[in-house]
Amino acid sequence: MTKIFVAGATGYIGINVVKSALEQKFEVVAASRKESADFDLKDQNLTVIKITESDDSWLAKLQDIDVVISCLASRSGEPKDAHNVDFKLNKLILEKAKDIGCSHFILLSAICVQKPKLAFQFEKLAFEETLINSKLNFSIIRPTAYFKSLSGQIENIKKGKPYVYFGDGKLTQCNPISEKDLSLFILSCIQDRNKWKQILPIGGPNQSLTPKNVGEMLFKIFEVTPKYRSFPVKILDVIGLFFLISSPFSKWAKNKLELIRIAKYYATESMLVWDEGKMNYDHFKTPSTGNDTLEQYFYSIKNQKLELNIDRDSKLY
Fold first, then answer.
1. For residue 35, what is the enclosing H or E element?
2. H or E segment at 275?
3. Do β-strands 280-282 and 273-275 pair in parallel, antiparallel, or remain unpaired?
């Protein structure tokens, strides 16, 4: 039985990787900072290692691991956090993997590193290079947008508030992928030799969507009168200028400046494969996988809410 270690196992994708791996009968070692994670602790193929940021003693518990899957990602994207997580912690795990004779390191990266401008992107690329040069077998996965990242405005539009986007709502495109389809793709790298020693951009089923498309979909599904509010991208430049002036004197301002830069990046750059020759993002060159669509995901959220409301109302009688 193949034994895998999942780093970042309590994150959005990591939890689903663990779940899918157990369903496929892998032996799984999951790293968790939480006292109780959302795992089936009764599964005999699952071992949970409690880790802390204060020391690295938990690494000694990693033995006889065949495959490491890293779903680590900094929470804020701020420079210090990105260095400590996206680079430093990943490198620490890589060194341990080499020490114990691990055969394969699968890294969940991000498609946005194609055109790096931000601290966390440079840290991800630095580790990608370290992994490639490690002589360990590797698969580097660069997913497009996640379904979850496109659902942040649902509660607002249900309250009658407008859907917000920058420019005309068509500045960017993405081909989002569900957590389940991405998890299955990650696990497929273990056996599929065509995915070894490769950088693998990946999206969901063929669906190139702009922010305006996503808004239209939400209004239709949740049966709300469409309302939109557009902001010019330059507003982010104005806000950024304020923090730029203050950043040499304030760590808080420096971190806020980086967050504004992150916001501008996602407002102006598509999450698709970048064609260097044509100097544009190409939907047709962005590989697709899986069956789940964003529309299905939004309907599932709507249905879950209805079920919760029905259950709550039934308790009143």
1. none
2. strand 273-275
3. antiparallel
Q: What is the mean pLDDT of residues 294-311?
A: 74
Beta strand 104-108 pairing with 27-32:
unpaired
For the chain, the straight-line distance linking the first and the last C-alpha, in angstroms and rounded, comes to 52
Q: Does 4 score more than 80 pLDDT?
A: yes
Mean pLDDT, the chain, whole residue set:
90
Question: What is the SS3 assignment for 107?
Answer: strand
Question: Which run of H or E residues covers position 284?
Answer: none
The pLDDT, as a whole number, for residue 312 is 39
243-274 residues labelled b (16+ CB within 10 A) or e (exposed): bbeebeeeeebbbbbbbbbbebbbbebbbbbb
The owner of tokens 């691991």 is 65
- 136, pLDDT greater than 70: yes
Tokens of 54: 């204060």
* Domains and their CATH numbers in the chain: 3-148+176-203+287-292 (3.40.50.720)
Whole-angstrom Cα Rg for the chain:
21
CB atoms within 10 A of CB 205: 17
What share of the chain in percent tops pLDDT 90?
Answer: 75
Burial (Cβ within 10 Å: 0-12, 13-18, ≥19) of residue 89: buried
pLDDT-based confidence at residue 37 (cuts at 50, 70, 90) = low
The closest alpha carbon to 275, from 286, 264, 267, belongs to 286
- CA torsion angle for 8, 12, 15, 19 (degrees, to 10)? -140
Sign of the four-CA dihedral 153, 157, 162, 163:
positive
- Identify residue 27 by its one-letter amino acid code: E
> CA–CA separation, 228 vs 251, rounded Å?
35
Q: CB within 8 A of 56, min separation 6: which ones?
A: 92
